[in-house]
Design goal:
alpha+beta, 21 helices, plasmid, three-stranded antiparallel sheet, 507 residues
């Protein structure tokens, strides 16, 4: 569904979005999408509907609800202020756009109360509005990209936007501590990466005033805006020109927007497409994502999901899709000639030992065991404990795969131990460090002594040079001891001239 978000320009002027995350901005845009054409004072969303609009990819409702709550807290902090009928005397009206958010976890719905008095900020469809394609907005990974996108769309007809550097910082809510090097690395570079897929042309020009950057200009060409039409919610936008690889890349970026899509991901997915259908690869990605999100033992879920793809691994699911056999039959028919040179998802799943397989080998007692206190051991002791445990497992079980046993040990036993440096080795290192420190002190003293001696030598040399340069009256050329008229100087005038010349010569 390709939703269009429409704004009255007053909304842009009065709304400053500070400290919003990318997901929270997606929620705000999704809510505005549905509110725009409604006249009611309350709008109802199902969780499923809101997740689709905002491209929410996590499967648990707990984090979804938490993000909704955070979004509302930040919206409630945005107090709008407008002059009222007593404006000349300083009269103002203050309000919030959405007075209440009612979240119903069991019913899986969200009720949003709309301030109907000021609903025109979102709903007015006169010539004074801007259009944002919600899917395009939601696909942007960086918060800075989203905020700049909103600003640039105000100037889409001119194709450029100039900010004073102070205004640019404010509009994009850039931390004050950021220098230009930080802004380039953390703001502009992600923006350039995001906008490759939005604008056919995008250029950043820094305008200097002396050595400092005073303004920043964005040149862009936006050709994706289509005439506004009344469309049904079931409308789908299909790009028929990008092919399976392009469609898969687009699917990855829009379905998992918080995962950094790299060349490595692209190569692995294209390799998968060689021997599997597009829908099957999408299902593979979905399975890996759901596994990563639902496994409580995985701390960094985004990184783990990414590593599964880049490492060409596949978690072993306890279930298969309803059309699994149908899909596999389709692939076998399509790939009979290439089966010896290309790999399938089944090969991918069986080619490597995964974390899921390791956990299946750990007994419930091992998983449930709570390690309350770590034992301090040396590296040598730790390696011996590990080897003894592996040897015992080999005797008591039929599992003799060293790699699997090591991974089971790391998952179930390693947290019991804290590898430390032995006290004698620690003392030895401390002693070595002290010796180095003492050597440095001695070296500093020697350098200081040499510096003093150098100064003394320079002073003596200077005095010696002065003595060597000492001129007398005999060294003066007689031709210099004459007046301007050419007469030979005598008496006091001659003496003054001699002293002046000697003073210059003996400097």
């Amino acid at each position: 569904m390709n939703e269009i978000v429409k704004y009255h320009k007053d909304f842009e002027k009065k709304l400053v979005l500070k400290n919003f995350t990318a997901s929270e901005l997606n929620f705000l845009m999704a809510i505005c999408t549905k509110v725009r054409d409604k006249k009611e004072d309350e709008v109802i969303f199902t969780f499923e509907e809101l997740k689709k609009l905002s491209k929410w990819v996590k499967t648990d409702n707990k984090s979804f609800i938490k993000s909704l709550q955070n979004t509302n807290k930040k919206l409630m902090a945005l107090i709008f202020e407008m002059p009222n009928e007593e404006a000349e005397a300083g009269g103002v009206t203050q309000f919030v756009l959405f007075p209440t958010f009612d979240i119903f976890p069991a019913s899986k719905i969200l009720k949003v109360a709309v301030n109907t008095k000021f609903a025109y900020l979102l709903n007015n469809l006169s010539n004074n509005f801007n259009q944002y394609q919600l899917q395009e907005f939601a696909s942007l990974k960086s918060v800075y990209s989203k905020l700049l996108y909103k600003e640039l769309m105000l100037f889409k007809d001119t194709g450029y936007r100039i900010f004073k550097i102070e205004d640019f910082r404010k509009k994009l809510d850039i931390p004050e501590k950021y220098r230009m090097t930080n802004i380039k690395q953390k703001v502009l570079t992600p923006i350039e990466e995001d906008f490759k897929h939005i604008f056919s042309k995008f250029e950043i020009v820094k305008i200097k005033n002396g050595r400092d950057i005073a303004q920043i200009r964005f040149n862009f060409t936006y050709s994706n805006i289509k005439p506004v039409e009344v469309v049904e919610d079931t409308e789908k936008v299909v790009n028929k020109n990008i092919g399976p690889a392009g469609e898969l890349e687009q699917y990855f970026k829009t379905t998992f927007p918080d995962v950094n899509y790299t060349i490595g991901h692209k190569e692995v997915l294209e390799k998968l497409l060689q021997n599997n259908s597009l829908e099957y690869v999408k299902q593979y990605l979905k399975d890996q994502w759901e596994y990563s999100q639902n496994d409580n033992n995985v701390l960094n879920k985004l990184a783990y999901f990414s590593s599964l793809i880049l490492g060409e691994k596949s978690v072993l699911k306890d279930y298969l899709p309803a059309d699994y056999e149908e899909k596999k039959a389709e692939e076998r028919n399509r790939n009979q000639k290439g089966v010896n040179t290309l790999f399938s998802l089944k090969d991918l799943a069986e080619k490597d030992i995964t974390d899921y397989e390791v956990r299946k080998n750990i007994t419930p007692e091992q998983i449930e065991q709570q390690v309350l206190l770590k034992v301090d051991v040396t590296e040598e002791e730790y390696n011996k404990i590990k080897q003894d445990w592996i040897n015992k497992q080999k005797e008591e079980t039929s599992n003799s795969d060293l790699k699997v046993l090591e991974m089971i040990f790391n998952a179930s036993q390693s947290k019991k131990y804290n590898v430390i440096v032995p006290e004698n080795e620690l003392n030895k290192k401390l002693k070595e460090m002290q010796e180095v420190a003492e050597s440095l002190k001695k070296l500093e003293k020697e350098i200081e002594k040499m510096q003093k001696e150098t100064i003394k030598i320079n002073e003596e040399t200077s005095e010696l040079k002065k003595e060597l340069k000492k001129f007398t009256e005999e060294d003066i050329d007689p031709a210099l001891l004459v007046s301007k008229s050419g007469k030979k100087l005598t008496g006091n005038a001659r003496q003054v001239k001699i002293e002046k010349i000697l003073s210059e010569l003996n400097k």
